[in-house]
Amino acid sequence: MGMKQLLLLRHAKSSWEDPKLADFDRPLAGRGLKAAKLMGRELAGRDWLPDLALVSTALRTRDTWRLVAAELPAHTRVTFADALYDASAADILGQIRQTDPSSDSLLVVGHNPGLEDLANQLAAPGSEATARKRLEEKFPTASLARFVFEGDWSGLSSARLTHSLRPRDLG
Fold this sequence. Notes:
With 171 residues, this protein is of the alpha/beta class. It has helices spanning 30-45, 59-71, 89-96, 114-122, 129-137, 167-170; strands spanning 3-10, 52-56, 77-81, 105-110, 144-150, 160-165. Strand 2, helix 2 and strand 3 (77-81) form a beta-alpha-beta unit.
């Protein structure tokens, strides 16, 4: 059992232009397209490369993943999970705990409030103080929370929050 990395990424800003669209089918807004690419470049630049991505099947999360993945230097295995759409923190954690033990770095692309709730629940004592404060304030669209922990995915209950990044903080 080595060090694991968990990356929780909220989908980028979605468009509300077409009021007839179901929530599930809303695409990314222009601002969201830019933010998703920015976060992908940030992951690549920091060498926080997932070997597996778990992505909600909603259009805006799939589009966020597509734009993030295009910025990564290596191919990442991806699983699209219906269970992540409108999921609670407990539901998301249940999905994470089913991750193949051979994966050392997992990226979850999902939705609030479940993703933000999970990030706040996971943040263990010893988490980076600025990241913790930022996460507690707000987890806006295209925000990323990075956690590290020793152990297996199946036993994950808390982890050390190392970073909480928002697109506006990156330029």
